[in-house]
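Justification of computing resources. Each target in the renewal requires a structure prediction run like the one illustrated here; the chain below, 212 residues long, is used simply to show the kind of job we budget for.
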Amino acid sequence: MMSYIPREYWLKHGRTYKDDFRYNKLFELQERVLIDYMKQNSTSFSSVLEIGCGFGRITKLLLTNFAGISEYHAIDISPEQIQNARQLIEKEVFKNGLNLDFAVGDITSLQVQKKYDLVIAAEVLMHILPEEIRDVMHKLVKSSNKHVLNIDWYEEQRSKKAASHNFIHPYEIIYREFSEVKHISRVPISKKGSWLRSIDTKQSLFHAIVNN
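Resulting structure tokens:
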């Protein structure tokens, strides 16, 4: 098995990710849970830092659902993904007075110069190496003055068929290690119903509330 080197892996896959992406009911549920949770919990914010924005799927979702956003900074390690995101948002989202910025960046080495109301990372932390996850999560926490949200793969036991670039991290435990975090919540992204209608994405939404 080839070793997983995050930068090399995502620079390569970033070139084709948008073309290979297939929207399905799991992504639909993920997005619905995220937006419903944020609205129901009165997650107020006007400035956003998105880590690993990809081709702009979550970027567009937030900008079209929260009119109060006045500043949005999105980064991704892949130049191709940043270009895809910029084209998607400029084509489909227009807001007067919105300070929107896309930039190529690696979260493991990124230096954030200011704090944002919301720092969000969707399906990003699950690809961070175990030896780097605490430093990366602390960087997200230190970049926020209100909320940190991440959506990632989370199960009690790691699947034996897990890909080499996917990791289960103890997000709640790690968040609680940081003095800046005053509360942490986890919401499983699943839908209950009959066995034909139940959906389990094997993901959870984690919400850390940060001390001002």
